[in-house]
Amino acid sequence: MAQLTVKNVSRKVDGTDILSSVTIAFNHGVTGLIGANGAGKSSLLRAIALLDPISEGDVLIDGKSILENPQALYQQLGFVFQHSPSYGHLSVNEFLHYIAAMKGLTRDIADSQITHWLDKVNMSAFRDRMMSDCSGGMKQRVGIVQALLGNPKVLLLDEPTVALDHNERLAFYSLIKDISTSTTVVIVSHLSDDIEALADHLVFLERGKVTQIGDVQSLRQQASQALSDTNLSISDVITYFMSSVGSNLSEEVVECGA
């Protein structure tokens, strides 16, 4: 199980703090990033993946800086985007082989993994379909497969179920829970069902800073005691902690799954 560490990461755009001295150690399981629009959730994912420049700080996988060796990131990290790249001129198979080549996989290994993961997301029958002819849900499932090629140590999920129907979403939950036993997973989703089904830990962000962190059970107990209600849903827990962020901004090192 890889440890993903975000160390004093800051990002400024036109003088505005998008992320401010964020330090988090993600140790195992699935961590949900929670916050209002503009809190810095997707910005943090993109910073981890080096898709957006970091003004200060570092990102480490198993103690090694990915800033010092960004090429190694391709072999260690997978990213499921909210809107998967279309590459309409390629077939599903061609697109996945293109991604596999970028990750340094041999042709034989790529073939084996593509076959395996397409089967897991019920896309085997559409391997030769052009990406331009795929529905939104199909493109999203292809996007999930491309992220899993190479068996990454870290998997980042940005609104991964947005285009999936009910049955596809349930299959996705099962897949991610299985993967999370050996992979560090970080998810951003506005759907409380996604967080309820997947998250072992939660990190709350406000104005680019960490405000609260903990495992789901502990946070639920804390909110239940404060509200004198033992039947809180995950949505209730999220609402409680988001309503109290102003007095709880933190710049301390925080850990998920410690």
UniProtKB/TrEMBL annotation:
A Pfam family the protein falls into: ABC_tran
Keyword line: ATP-binding, Nucleotide-binding, Transport
Positions of the ABC transporter domain: 4-232
Residues spanning the signal sequence: none
GO molecular function, one term: ATP hydrolysis activity
Alphabetized SMART domains for the sequence: AAA
Taxonomic superkingdom: Bacteria
Descriptive protein name: ABC transporter domain-containing protein
Lineage: Bacteria, Pseudomonadati, Pseudomonadota, Gammaproteobacteria, Vibrionales
